[in-house]
């Protein structure tokens, strides 16, 4: 009985050690598998980028493959959302941009394009909430894009003073990412709606000066002729 007890104890320790070794090996295999999946997903993503300008459908398929291999690939979700947006498949675009935001909550571009997608779906209040978050991100390098979209969302829900304030904030961003002529044109149009002709004339004159021969400048000239 004593011999058997010693044997059982030794055997049990051996089994425990074997299980630990197998567990460690399994962990190594899992980590290597994950790294391989990440590399494969990145390969599909880069392939998609290479097709984007010449064959959007092939790019679309490559981005989908990337996500299938690695569901947490932010870049592939964002790129897929952009294609859906271009195709006006806004519900699908919203899904991909929301996933992008969940993966990188402080990424301003994902928030900006989610807001833009919500505007296209006429969900202006939701869009404004999302776009405000984008404008508040300290490391977002192009907040004037979000401010410009925020202005549209606010205007479309009837908040012209809020829209004017958003455009004025956009004009403070240096260097500009939204053409200043377009921002001034939109600002002039909103001042006209508010009946503030003097401010409208000033904003439209800026738009005309910045784009004297272009479509924006021509539109600004036409609008100025309507002012008292």
Folded structure, characterized:
Helix 1 (2-51) runs antiparallel to helix 2 (56-69), helix 5 packs parallel to helix 7 and helix 8 (160-170) runs antiparallel to helix 9 (180-193). It is elongated, with a radius of gyration of 28 Å. The protein is mainly α. The chain has helices spanning 2-51, 56-69, 74-86, 90-103, 108-120, 124-135, 143-156, 160-170, 180-193, 197-210, 215-225. It has a domain at 40-104: Serine Threonine Protein Phosphatase 5, Tetratricopeptide repeat, CATH 1.25.40. It contains eleven helices and no strands.
Mind telling me which CATH architecture of the domain at 40-104 this is?
Alpha Horseshoe
What is the β-strand count?
0
Beta-strand percentage range: under 5%
Helix-residue proportion: over 70%
CATH topology of the domain at 40-104: Serine Threonine Protein Phosphatase 5, Tetratricopeptide repeat
Instruction: Write down the overall geometry.
Output: elongated
Structural class by SSE content: mainly alpha
**In DSSP terms, counting alpha (H) and pi (I) runs of 4 or more, how many helices?**
11
Order of helices and strands: HHHHHHHHHHH
CATH class bucket of the domain at 40-104: Mainly Alpha
Radius of gyration: 28 Å
Which superfamily, in CATH terms, is the homologous superfamily of the domain at 40-104?
A: Tetratricopeptide repeat domain
Terminal Cα separation, in Å? 111 Å
Task: Return the average pLDDT rounded to an integer.
Answer: 87
Oligomer: single chain
Main sheet: strands, sense, barrel: none
Residue stretches low in confidence (pLDDT < 50, at least 5 long) are 1-7
């Amino acid at each position: 009985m004593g011999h058997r007890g010693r044997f059982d104890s030794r055997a049990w320790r051996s089994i425990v050690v074997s299980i630990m070794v197998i567990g460690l090996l399994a962990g190594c295999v899992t980590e290597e598998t994950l790294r391989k999946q990440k590399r494969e997903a990145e390969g599909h993503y880069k392939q998609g980028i290479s097709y984007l300008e010449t064959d959007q459908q092939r790019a679309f398929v490559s981005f989908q493959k990337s996500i299938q291999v690695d569901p947490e690939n932010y870049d592939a979700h964002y790129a897929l959302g952009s294609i859906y947006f271009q195709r006006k498949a806004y519900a699908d675009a919203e899904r991909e941009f929301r996933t992008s935001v969940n993966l990188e909550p402080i990424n301003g571009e994902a928030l900006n394009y989610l807001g833009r997608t919500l505007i296209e779906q006429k969900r202006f209040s939701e869009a404004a909430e999302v776009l405000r978050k984008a404008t508040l991100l300290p490391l977002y390098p192009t907040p004037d894009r979000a401010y410009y979209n925020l202005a549209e969302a606010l205007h479309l829900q009837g908040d012209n003073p809020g829209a004017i304030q958003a455009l004025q904030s956009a004009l403070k961003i240096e260097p500009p990412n939204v053409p200043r002529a377009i921002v001034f044109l939109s600002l002039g149009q909103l001042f006209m709606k508010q009946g503030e002709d003097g401010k409208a004339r000033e904003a439209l004159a800026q738009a005309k000066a910045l784009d004297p021969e272009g479509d924006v400048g021509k539109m600004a000239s036409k609008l100025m002729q309507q002012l008292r």
